[in-house]
Amino acid sequence: MHLILGFVVSALLWVGPARAQSATPTFSQDAETLFQRALARYIKENFTGARETLLELLDQTPLNQRTSAARLLLAKSHYKLRDYNEALAASIELYEHFPYSRYLPDADLLIGDCYFRQNQIYSAATQYARVLTSRGPTELKARAADRLGQMVGTSRLTDQDIIRLRADFGEQIVDEAVAFGQARWPAKLGQAAEADKRLAVFLERFPNGYLEPLVRRRLLASTARSPLETEEDVLPTPAEVEEDPTQAKYKIGIIAPLESAVGQNLRDGILLARERFPLSSGEQIGLIFQDSEGSPIRAVKAAERIVEQYNVIAIIGALSSLETIPLAAHLSPQSIPLIAPTASTDEIASLPAVFQMNATPGAQGRRLADYAVGGMGHRTLATLAPRDPYGNRLAREFTTRAEELGGEVIVQEWFEPGATDYRGQFSRIRDAGLALRMPESFEADIDDLLLGGLQIAPPPPVPVDPDTVQPEEVKTIDALLVGASSAEDVLLITPQVASALIDAQLLGSDGWNFPEVARDGGNYVDNAVFVAKYHDQSSLPSVQEFVNLYRARFGRDQDIAAALGHDAMRAAREAIERGGTDRSSFVQQLQTLQDIPGATGRVTFRPGDRENAWMYTLKLRRGRIEPLQEPEPPESP
User: Is the pTM above the cut of 0.90?
Assistant: First the structure.
């Protein structure tokens, strides 16, 4: 049976996926709920419960945004339950139905692990090598390389096996993987210094290899201070900030992928806020750092360690929504306050004791509607947004709020993430706009009324060359929301708005907030209005103080992660300063903070509204992003 499965998998992967579902995935809240429930069970090592929930999701919901992720998690659940044949079968189904899924490299690694458990050593090695040649992240490739190195080091692979792998996957790729795995071997035996020496030799041998960035980061993180460095040259690590943070009276846990550049910026923003705003009592807030490595499972495990070992008042973390959602679901039932600094998914803050610093798509949609309808008086509106949770929530909240204020969204169009051609969407937007035209003259209306049902022969047609006819410009749509989530999408979509001759005020979300949009968008984006959480050119004193202090303190420019980390720590400090010295009182104080000056602008929470929805309204003018002075929007109902 094992050999048959191995043959099937190999044939499938080498020949390529035979078919894929032609249906378009749709967003399903039921599927999202089931997936989060399954993920929570998986994290808590209830693999049987996770498997049952995932099977329910796949059986009872149509193709949706979680289908491919659910298939991978189902395969992992089978593996954890030592049902390797079922794990292989689930991985095969992922290949069959989703041949372009971003989870395929993860499936390859899992298939290799199943083969290894079944003692199919060479088949396992080929799967690990497949990961090395995939488009998977470097961290995943490192795990595959680690396995190959161990297999060679323990003589599970013969010299002939290595020759075959080199022939199939490339000599350079295989040799680098084996060398990496063998260099890492001493670390598994507790010999960290020896492992670092071997990794340094590895870098000399493969200075431009695919694992080079990861190895260099690890070595830099573990290298001791050079004698040539001065005190000012060295950035503080969390361990250097205080001798023993666990002895502090007030402690806060920090969970983030600390080896990533963004995670380090988040960390440094937190450290800067603590330095700038000490408690008036003179006591220092202890910070307990834990590395999530970008994994939802590791984020929850890190929270468990922090809660079990330290009496923390609250936790700040994690970085992505993918990490933060299960983290919030884990902490909220225990009434442990969580401040989510950067996660932007809607409704994270709907859980008790969970606070959200970043602007959600829903909040952006409402703010844009306030500006367009409540502030500028636009009445006829249209939306174009990606068919994903971000675009769905942005367009939905924009539409709801606009209609509350008396506007009308006459057409909503969607595009698949990664699309480059939007002609169909703009054709339908044009049709909706042209349908709003008034008759050319009052007399035309009178003629229609007088003639009634009389049939009059039309005049003979006049031959025209369609290539010489200029399409009519659409002027009946007051504003068009382009809900792009990246600069690339903005630069692809906006020229096609102009080509479609749609003369409308362009509105955008935080995907417009990139220098390249202003620099490269030209006339296509000029005068567009968008909202964003962060604007480092803001004239607000609190923003400019942060920008200058961060550069002086750490020798590099800030980013939104650093700013949101700073403001999360500033909010935590304010809550403690005002009497939030235990978890319950911390929540009470935090949810009453009003207009606290911060790196992003202002921090405000309200009882029953734990989302810091303050954001900028910005305008693109002649290649620059500038704050917009618009009328005050009406208060939300």
Answer: no
